[in-house]
Amino acid sequence: MKINLKYGCNPNQKEAFLESDGAMPLTVLNGRPGYINLMDALNGYQLAKELKMATGMCAAASFKHVSPAGAAVAVPLSDVERKMYFISAKKELTPLATAYLRARGADRMASFGDFVSLSDTCDVCTASIISKEVSDGVIAPDYEPEALDILKAKKGGGYLVLKMDPDYVPDMKERKTIYGLDLVQDHNGWIPDGSSFDDVRSARADIPENARLDLTVALLALKYTQSNSVCYAENGQVIGMGSGQQSRLACTRLAGSKADLWHLRHAKQVLDLPFLKGKTRNKKDNIIEQYLADDPEIDVLGNWEQYFLERPEAFTVEEKRAYLRSLDGTSLGSDGFFPFRDNIDRAAKSGVSYVAEPGGSTRDDDIIAAADEHGMVLVFTHVRLFHH
Q: Does the structure show a pLDDT above 90 at 297?
């Protein structure tokens, strides 16, 4: 069976289609898919489904350019997190809506124009929240009738809505064609379980249940992220993803800078920003990113009348550094081993307390020593999670 697509990766690649040798497990309920839409949807759906399998909790992923901008399970939102994600304290949330808000909230700038993946039947609460965000489409195993109507009305009726057969089992051989040649490999079916964090190499060995959950989220997100990749996680969600870098330290820095922004959004200076009425969520996100920037050429306070009811106090570099130094309890996963201790040293600056990586470097002893110096728990999973 075949589904014709708008075009390939680019408009000049005019012929593009999705095909299956057997029955097509994917149904287009609304809109017309593109090639990249389906790459995001099919990768994101696997991630959300496996998060549900590993944790038993509703899960969601926000995909952009074939890597997750965010992924999460349905850990209830605190009052501060509701304010961060622009959700009223009075609004009742379903578990699936909570998972989606966390996935979208990992990096709201990166999630702009994302593809949403849901582990469970999309309910009205989740659909109503998706309808207010800038997004290209959604994939789920099913939709409540009213939820489907809400989503079909998005983007002037052109919003892409996909339904995936939850009982579909793919061929265990995966194929990719490059330059007319087929590469074939076994499907990566690894999912973390209760034994995945048993090989503790650090002096500190305690891993509380919330950290096990966060490490599970991080590792599964890495499984569907373009390598090299490093992921920071907290409260059942990705908070910083560094993907597709040739240097693992660059991954750790990139993901760490995103995790730092996520943490800083908890600060009173940010939560109390007196936005002018009528500013959209996406505009507020952009203003907050500029407010938190350390670039001297970016100064929203210089033109504060455009954004705020009154001039906010500056959030100085010294204040931000002090705030970040006070943090701990963050988890970090890496899809490949750390070759040098500089990755651990950088992670410590973002409040990382728990680290899971494959191990196997010639400098593993240096990595263990660095973890001990910073009081971290270091676990070797013995599983590499490269994805391309």
A: no
3-state helix, strand and coil shares in percent for the chain, rounded to the nearest 5: 35, 20, 45
- The answer to whether the CB of 133 falls within 8 A of the CB of 86 is no
**Distance separating alpha carbons of residues 314 and 324, to the nearest angstrom:** 16
Interatomic CA distance for residues 205 and 329, integer angstroms: 14
Q: Angle at which helices 209-223 and 35-55 pack, to 10 degrees?
A: 150
Q: Which of 65, 155, 284, 349 is catalytic?
A: 65
Q: Has 382 been annotated as catalytic?
A: no
> Phi first, then psi: what are they for 256, rounded to 5°?
-65, -40
Does 65 qualify as catalytic in the annotation? yes
How confident is the model at residue 187, as a pLDDT? 95
Q: Quick check: is 64 catalytic?
A: yes
Catalytic-role residue among 30, 37, 43, 228: 228
What is the tens place of the pLDDT at every residue in 315-352?
A: 999 999 999 999 999 999 999 999 999 999 999 999 99
Average pLDDT over residues 217-226: 97
Point out the catalytic residue in the list 14, 90, 277, 388: 388
Q: Residue 343: is the preceding peptide bond cis (ω within 30°)?
A: no
Q: Active-site residue among 49, 52, 64, 258?
A: 64
